[in-house]
Amino acid sequence: NTAQAVNRNAPIFGEGIRDWMVEGNKVISPPIRLVSGNKNELNVSWKFHNISRNRGSFFRIYAIDSRGGRKLLLNQLDADIAEVGQYEQLFVENLNRYVGPPIQLMFQVRGLQAEVSSVKF
Predict the structure, then answer these.
(1) Closest listed residue to residue 80, CA positions, set 108, 101, 59
(2) Are strands 12-13 and 113-120 parallel, antiparallel or unpaired?
(3) Do 117 and 13 contact (CB within 8 A), yes or no?
(4) Is 84 helix (H, G, I), strand (E, B) or coil?
(5) CATH number at residue 41
């Protein structure tokens, strides 16, 4: 179900994840093939909405390899989320270690909404 990715009522939404698969509070990218010799730098920009004061809120970014193994790239917890509030954020990560078989990215939230405006390599 990709239609929900631009639904402003969804836990995660935005133009940056328009063609991603939505599963409840997470979104999964189409397969991404990284090429040897390229920069392979992931750039994600997002901001939060409807931030709750409940403990246990988080925003996570994972890389999923071709065998289904997950690598946690970003784990933003409730204290950090409360500090940044609704300001636009940027995450940059070198993904050269994933050159080869296609990978996927997964974003997951709990206790708030994340609007992902851009995901670029």
Answers:
(1) 59
(2) parallel
(3) no
(4) helix
(5) 2.60.120.200
